[in-house]
Design a protein that fits this description.
- About 35% of the residues lie in helices and about 25% in strands.
- It is of the alpha+beta class.
- It has 3 domains: about 45 residues, Uridine Diphospho-n-acetylenolpyruvylglucosamine Reductase, domain 2 (2-Layer Sandwich), CATH 3.30.43; about 120 residues, 2-Layer Sandwich (Uridine Diphospho-n-acetylenolpyruvylglucosamine Reductase, domain 3); about 110 residues, Enolase-like, domain 1, CATH 3.30.390.
- The strands form 4 sheets. Strands 4-5-10-6-7 form a 5-stranded antiparallel β-sheet. It has a 4-stranded antiparallel β-sheet with strand order 11-12-13-14, with helices on both faces.
- Helix 10 packs antiparallel against helix 11 and helix 11 runs antiparallel to helix 12.
- The longest helix is centred in the C-terminal third of the chain and has 20 residues.
- The mean pLDDT is about 90.
């Protein structure tokens, strides 16, 4: 962290919003710190002001609402894993939380931080896309909600204004009969940054696909939806060949992977295709 940076450590939501009055792009919010503390240490990020919200208990908690499941921004991966409500209403979010680093990381990593850092390799964000989640932002001026697909705007960029804070995430009520799947591929089986991460939510009635929403990470500059799958499969009774064609189309048309230290673009496209084909077969072919 820059020696010139100032730090605020509010204990209430009101105090946190007060600390963000007059915030600029150089003002950063510190939640669990699993990402930012590394950046501070390496010098990649040099904030002018840090607002540490870790002790703001109003940003924690998981509760059921008429519209769905409300998850406080400071809810950790450990808390997601332990929540019966999350397991019932957001099952693949719990599965994804179980793959976010070691237990020590899971005890600090938060859902709001995972979303707010806007890393293209984030594990939880593709799940939130597939589940059509919304993010609620608050400031002294009021509150607003955005679909997570609109909240992420680019590489490590979001629609959050400097004076705003991620307050919570809403996962809408599960559609009847919806089936979900999640896969993460990394350099090793555990505690790795994703090379490709995928989440799918699909409903089928009498063997015909009614809705299909899929998302992927580490295959573009930000987490993305895979609209080709829905265009190729919605309204159809799929077979293995149709699923393979749709997966191939999505891996070709929907993503823009790069070569980096973890993998190559060609590898990522092929892995995405295989994951999609496998997930869709698991979710659909037993029902058709």
């Amino acid at each position: 962290m820059s020696p010139a940076a100032t730090v605020s450590s509010p204990r209430t939501l009101a105090g946190a919003l007060d600390a963000l009055v007059g915030a600029t792009e150089a003002t950063l919010i510190l939640a669990g710190g699993t990402d930012l503390m590394v950046e501070f240490q390496t010098g990649r990020t040099r904030p002018g002001h840090v607002v540490d919200v870790w002790r703001v208990d109003e940003l924690r908690g998981i509760r059921a609402e008429p519209a769905g499941l409300r998850i406080g921004a400071l809810t950790t991966c450990t808390e997601l894993r332990a929540s019966a409500l999350a397991q019932e209403h957001a099952d693949i979010l719990v599965i994804a939380a179980d793959e976010v680093g070691a237990e020590q990381i899971q005890a600090r990593a938060t859902i709001g931080g995972n979303l707010g850092t806007a890393s293209p390799a984030a594990d939880l964000t593709p799940v939130l896309f597939a589940l059509e989640a919304e993010v609620r932002l608050v400031s002294k001026a009021g509150a607003r909600s955005l679909p997570v697909t609109e909240f992420l705007t680019g590489y490590r960029k979001t629609a959050r204004r400097p004076e705003e804070l991620i307050e919570s995430i809403l996962v809408p009520t599960r559609a009847p009969g919806e089936r979900r799947g999640f896969r993460k591929v990394g350099t090793r089986r555990a505690q790795s940054i994703s090379k490709v991460v995928v989440a799918v939510a699909v409903t089928a009635i009498d063997g015909v696909i009614r809705t299909l929403r899929a998302s992927a990470g580490s295959v573009a500059e930000r987490t993305i939806l895979l609209p080709s799958l829905e265009r190729e499969l919605a309204g159809k009774a799929p077979d293995a060949a149709a699923l393979d064609r749709a997966a191939r189309r999505a891996a070709t048309a929907d993503c823009a992977p790069i070569d980096d230290v973890r993998s190559t673009a060609r590898y990522r496209r092929e892995v995405l295709r295989r994951i999609l084909r496998t997930l869709l077969a698991e979710l659909l072919l037993d029902e058709t």
